[in-house]
Amino acid sequence: MAAPTPDVMGAALTTSAADLFTVPASTVRHVLQVQAANIDGTNDVDVTLQWTDSSNADAVYRLAYQVTVAAKDARTMLAGPLALSAGDKLQALASAASDAEITVTYYDESTA
Predict the structure, then answer these.
(1) Dihedral of alpha carbons 69, 37, 65, 93, sign
(2) 89-103: per-residue pLDDT in tens?
C-alpha cells in the first residue's frame, strides 16, 4: 500500500461558521497544520477554528477561539496534529468577513 500523500486546501473566512471540509466515508483525516492569515492591511481579525463530532450528535468543539491575528500577519491555529473521523467537519469563521484566509494541510487514511 502506498504512503498517504499530504494535501492542502484553503478558504476565505466570513463571520459565519463555514465547513472547510467533511471527512469522507471510510476515512480518517489527519490534519497536520492549520494557519490563518490576516489579509487586511490595517485591522486585526479574530479567528475561530472548530470541529463537529459526527459520532456525538454533531457536538461542536473549539480548537482555537477568537484568536487575534494582527494585520498583515499569520498564526498557526493548531498546536499539534488532529485525527478526524468519517462525517466529522472542520469549520472556521472570522470577526470580519473577507479579512482572513485559512490554509489546512492534511492527509487521508482509508479505514475500508
Answers:
(1) positive
(2) 999 999 999 999 999
